[in-house]
Amino acid sequence: MSIYLPTLKQLQYLVALHEHGHFGNAAEACFVTQSTLSAGLRELESLLGLTLVERTRRVVRFTPVGERIALQARRVLAEAETLTDLARAAGKPLSGELRMGVIPTIAPFLLPQLLPRLRNEWPDLKLYLREEVTGQACDSLARGRLDCVLLALPYRCGDVETADLFEDRLHVALAEGEKAAAAPMIAPADIDEHRLLLLEDGHCLKDHALAACNRPELASEAAMLGTSLHTLVQMVDNGLGMTLLPEMAIRAGILNGTSVTTRPLAADHPSRRIALAWRKGSPRAKEFQLLAAALKSAATGAA
């Protein structure tokens, strides 16, 4: 076996550059300076005796062999991550570092209630959080940038295992003076598609809301304007339409200071499932099951 082997750090630099296509962004993702990343890649090329990246002022272009080596480097890093996970799983459960992704329609409403209880129950756990829309979070999970993801189902998140935590019911939010507000519940047929405000593409809550309503025309007629649920609430409060909110956001006080009222959505499937997901076959699966149980207990207790 050759003693001149690439280091994991060099492979991390290569994979980061392959993902970001920009030296500055890759260096930022690796928490190093651009000169450090560039030097590491030059050392890797010298070690292998190959040109992996063609450098110009405007474009970073991988050579054909550079493409193949970058893909293999990703596999090597994934195996190294598995080795670390095996060691963690053999030690004290829920201790040390854990990187969890959380989607934006969950993070601000659930985490303030959950995190203090997790810190109290698992004081040795260093939980690092990353807020991303569902597609990006699932991609980060698959690439090993995250260990698990707190998300809403149904959603195709790849080759993962999941543990359901609880059901999160959807409600119609509208101004108090609107005619529909007089009813105890609002059926999908009573929603004016021309006044329905939804989150922009990328947020799975939009898809869950449309699926719950089971009205195909809503996808094309609804105004998908909001970048966040708080923005949608402000638009409703200013008489611009109505929207759909998850119950956890209402419980967390998203309507405080507004004249917006809500009514439960009277549909066959008016809820989304909140769940924890992790890579299938992960050595830390038992640990994630333990985390899921802790999250479920904290969430239902807070409710």
TrEMBL record:
Highest taxon in the source lineage: Bacteria
CDD domains tied to this protein: PBP2_OxyR (cd08411)
Keyword Transit peptide: no
Gene3D superfamilies on file: Periplasmic binding protein-like II (3.40.190.10), Winged helix-like DNA-binding domain superfamily/Winged helix DNA-binding domain (1.10.10.10)
Xref: PROSITE patterns: HTH_LYSR
Domain HTH lysR-type intervals: 6-63
Family, per entry: Belongs to the LysR transcriptional regulatory family.
Protein name, per record: Hydrogen peroxide-inducible genes activator
